[in-house]
Amino acid sequence: MNSFERVVTALNHQEPDRVPVYPILSGVTRKLVGASYEKWSTDAETCANAFLEATRQFDIDCVVTLIDLSIECDAWGQKLVFAENDAAHPDYSDLVIKEIEDYANIKKVDYRTSKRMMMHIDVCKRLVAELKGKKPIVAFVFGPLGVLSMLRNQQDMYMDLYDDPDAVKEAARNINETLKEYVAALCDIGVDAIMFDTLFASGTIMSKDMWVEMEGGLMEELSEVVRQKGCLNMIHNCGQRIYFDVQIEAIQPAAISFLYPSDDCETFEEVKKKYGDQVTLIGCVTPANSVIGTDEEWDQQCTDQIDAMAKGGGFMLETGCEYPSGASFDRAQRMIDIAKTYGVYQK
Known about the structure:
The protein has 347 residues and is an alpha/beta fold. The protein is 44% helix and 11% strand.
């Protein structure tokens, strides 16, 4: 099997030749092309070449275009800080939404006016041109509430939900109208799936009822656009106590990438038993362990995840969030080697 066939088999809840694997190699790939972090995250050719080089050197089974969480907020004029060794982030001293009244200024915009959104589209075009049918290309998109939190710091936005929820809802809806056209454009260039980061759909950030009220309906609309384009919906959420049930209902994802068990399960084995026939499970090795602990502890976590969730298919081994940008590639390679040896399905 090639990588594309392997992943499709897993998504169909069947056992491929082995467990598909992809440590989420994002900013760290800049090292493969000798680029600065800012160059990698702003120049489409550099970024795409880095992702392509990662597939060549490490034979990962899937490419997920996680660049940073500030791609979409650029469309509303949010100033960003580009650090030397970390992902770009909003300039928290100069946010677009400074006061609660500023939510009224967040309108639907043309995604084509955003340099960073268009850069991401260009990256995906380059990946599709090189890898279509060989390795799945999954475009990474921040959900509407997440984008809004990049324009207004998360803590203040959370308080605004209590003080003036209608203002927050309207702004999130206008962002979502922009995201609908953006994801449609990504689908049109030939990506295989859209992976939505639903940061707020976890128990450590927002109650389940509040997430359903504030973002559930918006995500339902957004995921329908992807379905109509013939692409798959996926979810990434590395929060603790992630809400599988309501997200599956709203988004109908083919797969969920996660780091911790769902809010209604204690263990990964329980997650597999409860949700393994509804959605492909992707995870869940702790990224920080790529730079702390021993090789043996890292290896054990990889094999433990395979033991807990691989049986019967419907599982892909990955880091539960981005592989650290400052880490060496050694443990990424160890994860890949384990999938290719320990993760072989016995026919």
